[in-house]
TrEMBL record:
Gene Ontology terms: biological process: bacterial-type flagellum-dependent swarming motility
Homology family: Belongs to the flagella basal body rod proteins family.
Native source species: Prosthecodimorpha staleyi
Cellular component annotations (GO), alphabetically ordered: bacterial-type flagellum basal body, rod
Listed name of the protein: Flagellar basal-body rod protein FlgC
Transmembrane feature ranges: none
Compartmental location: Bacterial flagellum basal body
Subunit structure: The basal body constitutes a major portion of the flagellar organelle and consists of four rings (L,P,S, and M) mounted on a central rod. The rod consists of about 26 subunits of FlgG in the distal portion, and FlgB, FlgC and FlgF are thought to build up the proximal portion of the rod with about 6 subunits each.
Amino acid sequence: MDFNQSLKIAASGLKAQSGRMRVIAENLANAESTARAPGQDPYRRKVVTFASKFDRELQAQTVQVGKVERDRTDFKSRYEPGHPAADASGYVKYPNVDTLVETADMREAQRSYEANLNVVTATRRMILKTLEILRA
């Protein structure tokens, strides 16, 4: 594998993880949002899937963000009769976002991002060392 291939494969991983982190940030931003009117559903959690793609130019597998799907788990509900989004029985629906799960997913995405970034950094160092050897 040459340097160019490793850089492009790591770049695909960086792009995929940044897309994942963007969706997680959206989930966290909407964790406490409610529906705009009684009877409507609040924000539904989104989940990123990854897809493997064979790059003919590189002759290697790369990763990309696949479908962004909606999590079908039930919404949370709290008894808040004075809330504008409360239904007839006084319950308000809240998104199915668990901030603890989102934080763990964000940490995992961050670690994967850092691993790909380390590949880029190591490859750049190897390129520089190769150039130094060729100059000597």
